Prior knowledge:
The chain is of the alpha+beta class. The protein folds into 2 domains: about 10-75, Winged helix-like DNA-binding domain superfamily/Winged helix DNA-binding domain (Arc Repressor Mutant, subunit A, Orthogonal Bundle), CATH 1.10.10.10; about 80-235, Chorismate lyase (3-Layer(aba) Sandwich). Helices cover about 25% and strands about 35% of the residues. It has helices at about 10-25, 35-40, 45-60, 85-95, 115-120, 160-165, 165-175, 195-200, and strands at about 60-65, 70, 80, 100-110, 130-140, 140-150, 180-190, 205-215, 220-230, 235-240, 245-255. The strands form 3 sheets. Strands 4-5-6-9-8-7 form a 6-stranded antiparallel beta sheet. A 3-stranded antiparallel beta sheet has the order 3-11-10, with no helix packed on it. Strands 1-2 form a two-stranded antiparallel sheet. The two termini are about 35 Å apart.
Amino acid sequence: MDTSLVRSPVYQQLNQRLRAALATEYRSGDQFLTEREVAEKFQVSRATANKSLASLVSEGFLEFRKGLGTFVRRDVIDYDVRSLVSFTEKARAAGKKPSTELLTFGKLTAAEVDESLHAALSVEPSDELWELDRIRLADGVPVIFEHRYVVQRHCPKLTKSQAEGSLYRTWTETHGLKIGGANEVIRAVLLSTREAKHLQATAKSPALEVVSIGYLEDDSPLWWERTLYRGDQYEFHSRLGPIQSATPARGRLRATD
Length: 257
C-alpha cells in the first residue's frame, strides 16, 4: 500500500487510503492502526489522523473499544458506489462466508433483450450476450439478487464455474480485462413475487435496486445489471457536507442478533 500523501486535500486522500487498507489488508475483528501509527505511516498530522479515524468510526467501518483500541467492525459488508471491489472480497473482509447460487447462465443475442440495452451496451441485434441470474448469500442468507447481461466478445470463454464465483476477479485475473468503472442508479422498489422467493422475503416488501452499466478502461460497455438488495438486510449511508468531506451512498448489511 502506498503510504505517501502528496495531493490535496490530505484528509480526503487519507480517508481513501484507510478505506482501501480496510478492504484489502484487514479482516473483521482485527485491531486497526492507532492515531500515532496512522500519522507516522502516512506522514500526516495527529489531528488529521484523528479526524480520519473518527470519520471511519462514525461511518461504521471501525469501532472503538474503551481501553483496547480501534477495531474493524464485525457486522459490515460495505457497498460503495465508487468501488468495484467484489462482493466475495467484501463479505470475507466482514467475517462472513460468501456463496453464490447460479440460477441462469447462457448465451443469447441482443435481439432477445430490450432494445434500450442495445445502445447502453453498444451492441447490434446479432451480437451475443451472456445472461446471468445469481443470488449472493452471506452466511447462507440470501441478501442480493442479480440479473446481468455481459457483452460476450469481451470474455468469450466465460465458464459456468467462473460465473459461480467472483466475476470481478474472473474478468481481471483470468480474462485480463481492465475495469474502468460503472454508472449506477439507486432506487427504492417493492419485490415481485418471483424476486421475493429468490431472496426468501415477502412479496411487495421493500428492496434497494441498483441498475448499473460497467465499463472497461477504454469506455467500452462490459455489462448491464439490475441488482436487488433486501431491504431488511441492507442499508445505505451517505455523508453530506462540502465536496471535500462528503461521501456517496454506501450500503452495508444490517447487524443482526
